[in-house]
Amino acid sequence: MAGWFAMLTALALLVLVPAATFWAIRAGALEDLRNEGLAAAQSRALTLESILDRQRAVVAILADDAMVKSILRGSAREGRDAVSAKLERLGAETQSAVLYLLDADGRTIAASNWNQPDSFVGHDYSFRNYFRQAHPTAMEFALGTVSGQPGLYLSHDVRDGAAVLGVVVVKVQFDALESAWARSPNATHVTEGDGRVIITTDPARRFAVAVPPAPDSLPITLPVRGTRWTVTMLVPLREVQQTAGYAAGAAGLAVLLLLAMADQARRSRLRSVRKAAADRSYRAELERAVTERTRDLSEEMRERQAAQARLSQMQADLVQANKLATMGQITAGVAHEINQPLATIRLLAENAQVMQPCGPASDNLTRIARMTDRIGQITDQLRGFARKATGQVTAVPLRPVIEASLLLTASRRKAGDIAIHLPDMPEGLAVMGEQVRLEQILVNLLTNAFEAQEGCPDPWIRIEVGARGDRVVVTVADNGPGISPDVMKQLFAPFATGKAQGLGLGLVISRDIARDFGGELTADEPVLGRGAAFHLTLRKAA
Question: What is the spatial distance between Cα 418 and Cα 421, in angstroms, rounded to a whole number?
């Protein structure tokens, strides 16, 4: 009888103690999990509120901007480009996807992506709620008609007194926020007032109606200040269940150990076996950790060595660039100093002609005077080329620029006996730019063409000028070996060059100058047996 009673008591302990432990531990762990989840959900809601507050401030400030109001009142197109550039800078600083300005009819007149293929400029958004309901502000979460990307549109009307001039709109994308949330095991989504999911760690659920959470997760819901949005975070209950199960198992094990105290030998043997297994696992884990750390350190050392090598190369390239800049200053100084003795030579030659107009040396004196004029013209071009650019884009006649560039590179052309084919150009053809920097582009293209044809039979360079609407295209082509496919892949990358002594900066700087003028510098794709051809596209002066 006593034996049965002891057995029943042992069985009751094995059932009741683990069960009580499970529910007690589960209740405590669930409370801790709820508190941790609430803190995490509050952090996510505050992050979202911070993003919205920052973007609301952006459109509010722009709505009161004097330049924005001036454009909406009907200023020139150049002013629109300035506003677009300003929106581009502000968008980069505030991490906005796109900032754009709509006129009173809902048409975009300026945008931060104004110089990109998918620019919003010129698009009509009068059908959007954020335009129609901007009194004074509105917000709408939708797919972009141009980009096709989902995002939040915040708008603010621009007023001149009681009159509405237009609407400032900022598009906010939450890709980075969703990615950050997705790194957490807690699935999170944001719903609008109608229950539609707009921001989510699961893109497949976007724009669908939120469904009730699964029973294996703890939902934590918080409102987003200033909106009808709701942040919902689903905290998995798997760890709670596991913790409670482990605790129940531990309790059952304790009961078993208490019941097995009489079997001292068996308990000792089991402890020895467990200790040995734990030691093996610890040693294996330690060896694995040491191996991984050694591999990480080796990789880090290789990366640092590669970075040091790149830094050394860049320092050497910058030193060479500084040498070239110093050489340009010296050239300008030498050209300036030559002018004084040159003027004296010309004066003496002219005086000698006056004193002996019909003497035997008269022809030689005339040649001396002409040569001094020629030297003076060359030194004037050198000083003009070395002169600092003004930074102002104006109408520049194209013919003098091409002639000056050819004069500056005449010595290289004559040394290689290279034929030059020049176009027929109208005298009045002018482009928007700056003479010194335009000459810099053409001198660089001509110099590259001369160097590419060293040792080639019958070398020639052809310059073509063509007008395409409001654009003028200047083409510099040669019959050299052309550009290799490997060089073409990084043709306009800084410090990438196929020359033994080159820096790889000439084409990069030339393309940047062309873009400053509102133009572009491109090259034809390499073709076997055909030389290189570069196209400088510029705006035609009105």
Answer: 10
Nearest to 533 by CA among 416, 449, 457: 449
- Picking from 366, 367, 447, the residue whose alpha carbon sits closest to that of residue 411 is 447
Beta bridge partners of 465: 474
Q: CA–CA separation, 157 vs 351, rounded Å?
A: 77
- In whole angstroms, give the CA distance from residue 41 to residue 189: 11
Which residues have CB under 8 Å from 259's CB, separation 6+? Answer: 10, 13
Would you state the structure tokens that stand for residue 523, as one six-digit string? 């090259």
Q: Which residues pair with 190 in a beta bridge?
A: 199, 231
- Size (the chain), residues: 542
Reference 90, options 173, 170, 177, 31; nearest CA is 170
For residues 310 and 332, give the distance between their C-alpha atoms in angstroms, rounded to a whole number: 33
* Residue 151: DSSP 8-state: E
Neighbours of 293 (CB within 10 A): 10
Amino acid at 55: Q
- pLDDT tens string, the chain, 542 residues long: the values are 666 777 788 788 778 888 888 788 878 888 888 888 889 889 989 999 999 999 899 999 998 988 888 888 875 556 888 888 888 998 888 888 899 999 999 999 999 999 998 899 999 999 999 999 998 999 999 988 888 889 999 999 999 888 899 999 999 988 888 899 988 888 899 999 888 998 998 888 888 888 888 888 889 999 999 888 999 998 888 877 778 788 878 888 888 888 788 668 888 888 889 888 888 888 888 888 888 888 888 888 888 887 777 666 665 555 455 555 555 555 655 655 676 576 677 666 767 767 777 766 776 776 676 567 656 655 655 555 455 455 678 999 999 889 888 888 887 777 777 888 888 887 789 999 998 889 889 999 998 888 888 878 888 999 999 888 899 999 999 988 888 888 888 887 776 565 655 556 788 888 999 999 999 999 988 877 778 999 999 999 87
* E strand or H helix at 253: helix 238-259
Whether 537 contacts 514, CB under 8 Å: yes
- In 3-state terms the chain splits into helix, strand, coil percentages (rounded to 5) of 55, 20, 25
In angstroms, the CA 503 to CA 428 distance is: 37
How far is C-alpha 295 from the geometric centre of its chain's CA atoms? 33
First to last CA, the chain: 116
Q: Report H helices in 356-489.
A: 362-386, 398-408, 410-416, 435-452, 485-489
Assess contact for 109 and 103: CB atoms under 8 A: yes
Distance CA 103, CA 293 (A): 60
Query: pTM of the entire structure?
Result: 0.44
